[in-house]
């Protein structure tokens, strides 16, 4: 069944869109990530303009994050105070990111920007995830091995210290604000929630307990992506509501399936599988950037 998307100005198969939302929802449930860093390239692959793919991904992430944040709030695994500091940086970053996005759209360079950002970030994140997962899997097989993580690094000596009771931390507010700021820019430019960067940074840089990291990250992402959606809809006019609803419907169903699958697999196996998919998408995008197009010239005229 073909469905016409007015903002994207393309016709796409209805079941294909539901399937993409379902797949990303399964990944979200399995790996604890929003899935935007995979869904946006997939939308571009099926013919959705990059500007629309980026902007329309934001409301889908908002819905999934809202569902996850509610579950964590019920379990009291959300550090509200830390989330608000992250949110302050995220809102400011979104303003900057949307402004950059609009400027490049006017210059006609937004497609190149989105593709380059994805190639760089997916390549770096996928490579680091794969190496870390293989090393962890190798070390876990050694008898008596106990992983050790440093909780006090240079960021803890910065000024403007605040006490975060839920996370049992007394640290500077500058690092979480900066992390939120970067994630806000990525959300606006790349159409991602930023959890694949925020979660590792909060664990290894700030030293937050793993138990509260995911819920706090979802709390921040929920508001930042909602704010980004409003900015894109009012300034760039690139949010396709129908596309967002279809993706969200498939994503909610897929998240429940992914959560069931995740219980049956080891954490190291999950991370290696995710790293493989990230690197595969990265290679496809990189190939599309360097390959010579079939039509070198496009001529249009008006009578």
TrEMBL record:
InterPro entries: TM_pro_TauE-like, TSUP/Inactive_protease-like
Membrane-crossing segments per the record: 12-31, 37-59, 80-100, 112-131, 169-197, 203-230, 242-263, 269-287
UniProt main location, coarse: membrane
Membrane topology: Multi-pass membrane protein
Annotated signal peptide: none
Cellular compartment(s): Cell membrane; Membrane
Family assignment from sequence similarity: Belongs to the 4-toluene sulfonate uptake permease (TSUP) (TC 2.A.102) family.
Protein name: Probable membrane transporter protein
Organism of derivation: Pontivivens nitratireducens
């Amino acid at each position: 069944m073909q469905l016409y998307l007015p903002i994207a100005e393309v016709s796409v198969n209805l079941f294909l869109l539901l399937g993409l939302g379902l797949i990303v929802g399964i990944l979200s449930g399995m790996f604890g990530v929003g899935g935007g860093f995979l869904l946006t390239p997939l939308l571009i692959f099926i013919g959705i303009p990059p500007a629309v793919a980026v902007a329309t991904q934001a409301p889908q992430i908002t819905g999934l994050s809202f569902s996850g944040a509610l579950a964590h709030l019920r379990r009291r695994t959300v550090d509200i105070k830390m989330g608000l500091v992250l949110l302050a940086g995220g809102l400011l970053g979104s303003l900057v990111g949307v402004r950059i996005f609009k400027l490049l759209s006017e210059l006609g360079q937004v497609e190149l920007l989105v593709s380059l950002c994805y190639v760089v970030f997916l390549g770096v994140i996928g490579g680091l995830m794969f190496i870390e997962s293989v090393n962890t899997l190798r070390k876990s097989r050694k008898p008596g091995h106990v992983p050790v993580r440093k909780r006090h690094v240079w960021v803890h000596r910065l000024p403007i210290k605040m006490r975060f009771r839920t996370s049992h931390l007394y640290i500077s507010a500058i690092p979480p604000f900066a992390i939120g700021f970067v994630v806000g820019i990525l959300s606006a430019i790349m159409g991602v929630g930023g959890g694949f960067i925020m979660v590792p940074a909060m664990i290894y840089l700030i030293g937050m307990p793993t138990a509260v990291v995911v819920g706090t990250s979802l709390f921040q992402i929920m508001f930042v992506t909602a704010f980004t959606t409003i900015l894109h809809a009012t300034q760039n006019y690139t949010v396709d509501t129908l596309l967002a609803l279809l993706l969200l419907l498939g994503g909610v169903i897929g998240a429940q399936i992914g959560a069931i699958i995740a219980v049956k697999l080891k954490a190291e196996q999950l991370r290696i599988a995710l790293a493989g998919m990230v690197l595969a998408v990265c290679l496809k995008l990189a190939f599309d950037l360097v390959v010579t197009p079939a039509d070198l010239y496009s001529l249009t005229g008006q009578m």
